[in-house]
Structures are given as structure tokens and as C-alpha cells.
Amino acid sequence: MSRIVMGIESSCDETGVGLVRLHDDGTVELLADEVASSVEQHARFGGVVPEVASRAHLEAMVPTARRAFDTAGLELSDVDAIAVTAGPGLAGALLVGVSAAKAYAAALDVPLYGVNHLAGHIAVDTLQHGPLPAPCLALLVSGGHTQLLRVDDIAGKITEIGSTVDDAAGEAYDKVARLLDLPYPGGPPIDKAAKNGDPRAIAFPRGMTGPRDAPFDFSFSGLKTAVARWVEAAERRGDPIPVDNVAASFQEAVADVLTAKAVRAATESGIGTLVISGGVAANSRLSSLAAERCEAAGIELRVPRPRLCTDNGAMIAALGAHVVAAGCTPSSLDFSANPALPVSTVSI
Ligand code: KG4
Ligand code: ZN
After folding, report:
1. 221-254 pLDDT, tens digit each
2. Which one of 44, 123, 163, 331 has the lowest number of neighbouring Cβ atoms within 10 Å?
3. Which residues are Fe cation-binding (predicted)?
4. CA-CA distance, 145 to 143, in Å (whole number)?
5. Cβ of 7 below 6 Å from ligand 1
């Protein structure tokens, strides 16, 4: 007897509702993945404005859920369990999703699971590539997070191996895009500009790669400053800014550090599979360099398609399905959203 799991995501600027079917053999099938984004409302501020995001979630939540049920050809009464992002994320934004999920769970009388957004970014890969081997290594790269994680059990045991000490990789993309007068969010336009540039044109620094640096931690703020200084110097000389070359050289520095550290972590811990997820996993150079280096090191690489890498409800439904399959205890209806939920807490 298969079960339908509904997933609700509202941690940042995407209102997501996903529906999946958990089959008896533990495989999880994607049925619907509807997203409403408020990104355009934040663009002129160059970053997400929390109050604007919360209001947008409130307006989009029920229509997005309706679209998901229509797409899947299901009724609310078909739902067997609900999972919702409990954290980490923006407090007011999380609250909208958590409140909606509690209302649906109470009205439908089904179990509710408050789950971890970061674990959702990893779990989503099972919708495309099937069950995750255990252990596997995950490189999570988004606008808010840059982490290397050891995943022994997607439903229960995730351990942080390293993380950024300052900016997240996506944040660096967004800040560098701003320096280059490219639109927000900065990842896609930099990715595009870089295709016409020379990645060796400018030797930007590789943060935290010295012999005394923590081998699996990251730093991107020095890189961002180096790009700013380079652009300022060119402007002072009255030179035109070679946007394509700056974008390509910056992108190469990011992809180089991320892939080198991830492959080293996998090799040193004897882990044979690397999953890269989060918004920055959609980056074309990151995935091509990761493919090259993983192949050379004999590591299997899994990168979900771009639509699944950025925030969505399907990732929360997928994680919820794994949590249900593992027989975890549901969350009590009075749990609170936790903006700083640690990645080691997969469900609360
Ligand atoms: O996972 P996500 O949708 O939201 C967070 O949880 O943060 O990630 C958003 C981030 C943004 O910083 C955006 O610039 C970046 O992912 N991003 C990319 C690309 N597409 C989105 N970065 C590099 N290359 C891309 N193609
Ligand atoms: Zn995310």
C-alpha cells in the first residue's frame, strides 16, 4: 500500500508544495512540484527582504497547494502524511509554512513532520537518481549555506564535515553580480557571462587552501573582495570592465575550491558517492569540473536537475517520505519553526 506525502517549503523566497508517492519498496516517486517565487520583489534590493517574503508566502501558500493537487490529480483527502520545513531559514517565512502545515495536518488528521531544509536539498536527489548509497558525501551550496556533509542515513544521521566561515557560495555569486552590474540573483547571469570569458584571465585567490587552513572549511569573502578591488582598479584606470573574463575567472575560483575539497573529503573518508545540491549546484562549471574530478578519483557524482536544486516543495516531500519510511515519530502539533536548526536534526 503506497502512501502520499505532501511537502511544504517556505524558508526563504520560494513557496513550494510538493507531492510524492512513497512505494512499499521505499522508493519515492515525484507527483507534483509547484513553486511560487517572490524573487522579483526582492531584486531591486539585491537580496531577500524577510517581511516581503513572509507576506508573499501568505498569499501564495493555498494557491500553490491547489496547483500541486491539480497537477497530481489528487485530492487533499488522499494525503497520508505532511512534511514541512521547520528550519533553518527566515523566522517569519518559516512560520507561514509551519502554520499552514499544522492547519492541513489537523484538518486532515494525518501525521506532521517538521524537517530540515538542508537535508531536503540532499533527499531531493532520490527523486531523480533513486535511493542514496550509505554513506555518501553531500556538498550543499546555496544562497545561505555552503557545507560538506557526511550522510549515513538521510532520515536520521547527517554530520557536518566542513562549512563556510563567512559568505555562502551563492551569496558570493550574488555580491559579485552586483559589482558587475548583473541582475539578482547573480548565479545565472554570471554562469551565462562566464561562457564567453576566459577562466584563466585573472588569477583570483582560492580561499582557505593553505597548508594550515581547515581542509574542509570554505571562505568566499576574500574572493569577493579581490573581485571588488580588481574592478575598482580597472575603473580607476578608465578601462572597460571585461565582464565575461571577470565572471569566468571568479566562477573558476569558486568551482575549483568547492570540487577540490569535496573530492578530497570523499577520498580521505573512503566514500564513493558525492551528491551536489542547492541553488549553486545548477552552475554549469561546478558540475562539469566536479564530473571531471570525480571521474579521475573514481567517485560516483550525483547532481539533481537544476529545477530540483533550487528551493522547492518536492525536496521536503521527498525527505518527509524517507522519514515516514524510517518509522520516525511525528512532530507534536505545538512544535516551533527553528531559524537556526542544525543539519544534524533531520526531523524534530
Ligand atoms: O538553494 P537556493 O535556491 O536558495 C537558498 O536556499 O539559498 O539557492 C539560491 C542561490 C542564489 O545565491 C543564486 O545566485 C544561486 O543559488 N544560483 C546559482 C545558479 N543558479 C542559482 N549560482 C551559480 N550558478 C547558477 N547557475
Ligand atoms: Zn535552499
Report:
1. 999 999 999 999 999 999 999 999 999 999 999 9
2. 44
3. 117, 121, 311
4. 6
5. no
